[in-house]
TrEMBL record:
Protein name, as recorded: Reverse transcriptase domain-containing protein
Coiled coil: none
Domain Reverse transcriptase residue range list: 1-155
SUPFAM superfamilies: DNA/RNA polymerases
């Protein structure tokens, strides 16, 4: 979606909080959402004077994402109500959508009706980013979908593993000077940055991988190879 936090209808948001928050909590949130200002900066122009705004969810604190999730969930409930009923057991077990913040994938056995989704979200002042909208068809004998990227990972497990290996090696090479000092640093000192900066890249979203025994063995071998380099073995 486009600038989702900045287009929220505060009146709708406060109405949603009626059954979710106590009176004191609602008053606090109403206070935090009132008298907010924006300041536009344009190079070479005098735009220092702030102006009041009554739309959007101010960002920068721990409350902001919680309010956004509440608001977005209500919008998604309305979107789900526009979907056709499942035609079979398999379809009934499919999730309607996969969401990470304002990055949402709608799933179905039939082409998703993007126009209906756009119109439903528009009621909540949310706008679909058409330029970033992708259509992916997952078929048994198709390879194209395996290179589609979702939240930093490719849909195809094997292709994603190879990509993560490549990215982790790049991260490993950036710390080449650290690994060359194996005789001057303790193992624990070298392992800690490896786990934090390299292994985390290698195993990012690994819980989504569908691995065979061979895949696991190859991944273990690659991991051990990196460790030998880190430890100077």
């Amino acid at each position: 979606m486009s600038a989702a936090f900045d287009t929220i209808d505060r009146k709708q948001l406060l109405q949603l909080l009626t059954n979710l928050a106590t009176e004191d909590e609602k008053r606090i949130m109403q206070f935090l959402l009132s008298n907010t200002t924006l300041n536009v900066k344009i190079s070479g122009a005098n735009t220092e004077e702030p102006f009041l705004t009554n739309i959007g969810n101010p960002q920068g604190d721990s409350l902001s994402p919680v309010l956004f999730i509440i608001y977005l969930e209500q919008a998604l409930i309305n979107v789900r109500s526009t979907f056709d009923s499942p035609s079979n057991t398999t379809e009934a077990h499919l999730p309607n959508e996969i969401a990470y913040a304002d990055d949402i994938d709608f799933i179905g056995n039939q082409p998703v009706k993007v126009k209906i989704i756009e119109e439903t979200l528009k009621v909540h002042k949310l706008k679909v980013n058409v330029d970033k909208t992708e259509h992916t068809s997952v078929r048994k004998h198709s390879e194209e979908w395996k290179t589609s990227k979702k939240v930093g990972s490719l849909l195809g497990s094997k292709k994603d593993i190879e990509r993560k290996k490549h990215l982790s090696n790049i991260a490993l090479n950036k710390m080449e000077q650290t690994w060359h000092r194996a005789d001057k640093t303790k193992q624990r000192t070298r392992i800690k940055p490896y786990n934090t900066l390299v292994r985390s890249v290698l195993l990012y979203n690994c819980g989504t991988w569908a691995l065979t025994k061979t895949d696991e063995e190859k991944l273990d071998s690659f991991h051990r190879k990196q460790l030998r380099r880190v430890l100077g073995i």
